[in-house]
Each structure stands twice: as C-alpha cells, then as structure tokens.
Amino acid sequence: MNYLLVGLTFLVLAVVVAACAVLGTDRLIPGRRVLDALSSDGVDAAVGGELPLILSDHPRGKELHSIRFSTAFFGYHRDEVDGVLAKLMDENTRLRSLLESDSSSAETDNPGQISSERP
C-alpha cells in the first residue's frame, strides 16, 4: 500500500512539473514572444535579452509615459537614463528658444500683446 501511495505521489509530481514546464514558459522567460517575433523579422535582439530603449528626436508626453528602462543589478542602466535625460534637456532647450523667439517676434509685431499661439 505504501508503494502505491509513493508511486501516485511521484506521478502527481511529474504531472505538475510537466504542466509548469509547458504552461509557465512565458513566466520563466518573459520576453520570449518578443524575441521570437524579432528573430523571425530578421532583426537581431540585444545580447542581454532586453530590447534597447529607443526615443524619438522630439519626444511628446505619450511617448514619455511609456518609457521603460531595462534593469541592472542595482537599478536601471545608467547609460539609458543619461541618454533620455540628455535628449529631454535638448528638447527643453529647443522648445524654450522657440517660445522665446515667438514671444519676442510677437512683442515687435504687437507691442503690449502676448501671442496666443504655442508650438
């Protein structure tokens, strides 16, 4: 009787392990579907398995809300964060200079009135 219970226990354990292996591959390797899609398109994925962070030249709010940095041992990858911050500072400088040039041209065109147009 004891051998039957031990055998049944091993059978249940084998079924659970097999189910975890078949059904849980997405949890064990989260980016597998993305990597499979990229490899079928002919685009090489990053070596670490995480996709590179790509930000447009003139990022908008919707794009900034969707930023996800890849993680390192002690947090985020410093190069990615520094790159995004540098791009945002450049965009901020560009928009400020555009705003100042618009306001100065509006003051010369209509002294005392502020332009309602914004970029």
TrEMBL record:
Domain of life: Bacteria
Extent of Low complexity compositional bias: 100-109
Compositionally biased tracts (Polar residues): 110-119
Region described as Disordered: spans on this chain: 98-119
Gene3D superfamilies membership: 6.10.250.660
Name of this protein: DivIVA domain-containing protein
Species per Swiss-Prot/TrEMBL record: Rothia endophytica
